[in-house]
From TrEMBL:
Superkingdom per UniProt: Bacteria
Gene Ontology CC terms: membrane
Diacylglycerol glucosyltransferase N-terminal domain residues: 14-179
Membrane-spanning intervals of the chain: none
Single GO MF descriptor: hexosyltransferase activity
The entry's keywords: Glycosyltransferase, Transferase
Source organism per UniProt: Proteiniclasticum aestuarii
Compartments (UniProt record): Membrane
Positions of the Glycosyl transferase family 28 C-terminal domain: 204-360
Name this protein carries in UniProt: UDP-N-acetylglucosamine--LPS N-acetylglucosamine transferase
KW Glycosyltransferase (keyword) present: yes
GO biological process: glycolipid biosynthetic process
Family note: Belongs to the glycosyltransferase 28 family.
Length: 383
């Protein structure tokens, strides 16, 4: 199989989903050629810095403005036309690369590149299969376009959402968000704790601020430092070096074990030893937690897609709401002391896991390719 996967690095989840799809294709067909393109950066590093930088700056410093953009672009299509102009340019610049690579299928794991797939068919006559893999737990107009062959969504609720947006239910597949094959493996808890200098007999909190390390993490740490329950805490600070330094300083004055980590490439290990994950509701983090059966407590959702993700979790009783994270100590204390509720959260979380998502996406890609080839052969036979 020759597969081209188009992503954009506005967060860690889109790229990880793309990597999981590539991994699955190569696992099934080792001789395949699979290329992942960080689309805007590939076209223009300057444009990438402008677009992605503006996005990251808006969610970090101007969340109300981002909320306005997200809401109105979804409700009345405002701003969609301007994005189409940009994506027309991106598609035009990308088209020679696509023609040279000549993929059997093109997959999009970002809303921007979902529109690129539609433009490819509408304006450039690209007829080979196209597949959009949505990486959140609710839909948005930026993801949903005509001239796309199939959509993979994270949950059954989204099937109804996309049907309301005019998509045929037969082209929507609730397979889940794909994750690395590592999440299907398990290592002994004692082994992982030994590597991290943790006590396997003590409850472990893991506090995460996404790949950017944003949110009221310091306030949350200050809250948990005053808990009466016995615990140890891992704090994943992502790319936020200032946060890492602050957490390191706090840990020096704390009688508890608080371990800051810039990044840990075995997130499946971290989640498998975590008794409570305190996190922003990013799509991939939610998915990984479901697969490992890790209880979640949610704070400071980014306006827009993360708020919708949080709504999904709360609607299905899959996470505890910490609000902004301020004054959350008593909520966390109650969870840690309530073994029955912790076990219920684990059970509900695991029940929502879709560990076969990547394999199912491969199967769907292979089916789309076969159907398109059969259709082409049928057209030739009629000539």
């Amino acid at each position: 199989m020759r597969a081209l996967i188009l992503s954009v690095s506005t967060g860690g989840g889109h790229g990880k989903a793309a990597e999981a799809i590539r991994e699955s294709i190569l696992l099934n067909e080792p001789d395949s050629e699979v290329t992942i393109i960080d689309t805007i950066k590939y076209i223009s590093p300057f444009l990438d810095k402008l677009v992605v930088g503006t996005y990251l700056k808006s969610i970090r410093h101007y969340p109300s403005f981002f909320k306005y953009l997200y809401k109105h672009s979804d409700e009345d299509g405002r701003f969609i036309k301007s994005s189409t102009i940009g994506n027309d340019y991106i598609t035009k610049q990308l088209y020679p690369t696509i023609m040279e690579f000549d993929p059997d299928i093109i997959v999009a794991t970002h809303a921007f590149t979902a529109q690129v797939l539609s433009i490819l068919r509408k304006k450039f006559g690209w007829q080979k299969p196209s597949l959009v893999v949505m990486t959140d737990y609710a839909s948005h107009a930026f993801w949903v376009h005509r001239n796309v062959d199939a959509y993979v969504v994270s949950n059954e609720d989204m099937v109804r959402e996309l049907v309301l947006r005019g998509r045929n239910p037969e082209m929507i597949f609730p397979y889940g968000i794909p994750v690395s094959q590592d999440f299907l493996k398990r290592r002994p808890k004692e082994e992982i704790c030994k590597e991290l200098n943790l006590n396997p007999q003590t409850k472990t909190l893991t506090i995460v601020g996404g790949s950017l390390g944003i949110g009221n993490i310091i306030e949350i740490i200050e809250e948990v430092m005053n808990l009466s329950s016995d615990f140890q805490a891992l704090v994943l600070t992502g790319s936020n070096s200032k946060l890492y330094d602050k957490v390191t300083d706090l840990s020096k004055d704390c009688q508890r074990c608080i371990l800051p980590l810039h990044y840990y490439d075995k997130m499946n290990d971290i989640l498998s030893i975590t008794d409570l994950l305190i996190t922003k509701p990013g799509g991939l983090t939610i998915t990984e937690s479901f697969i490992t059966g890790t209880p979640m407590a949610i704070y400071t959702a980014i306006p827009g897609h993360e708020v919708q993700n949080a709504d999904y979790l709360f609607r299905h009783h899959l996470a505890v709401d910490l609000g902004t994270g301020e004054n959350c100590g008593s909520i966390i204390e109650n969870i840690l002391q309530n073994e029955v509720e912790l076990e219920n959260l684990k059970t509900r979380s695991r029940a929502n896991g879709k560990p076969e998502a990547a394999q199912n996406i491969y199967n769907l890609a292979r089916r789309l390719i076969s159907e398109k080839n059969d259709s082409h052969l049928g057209e030739l036979a009629e000539l």
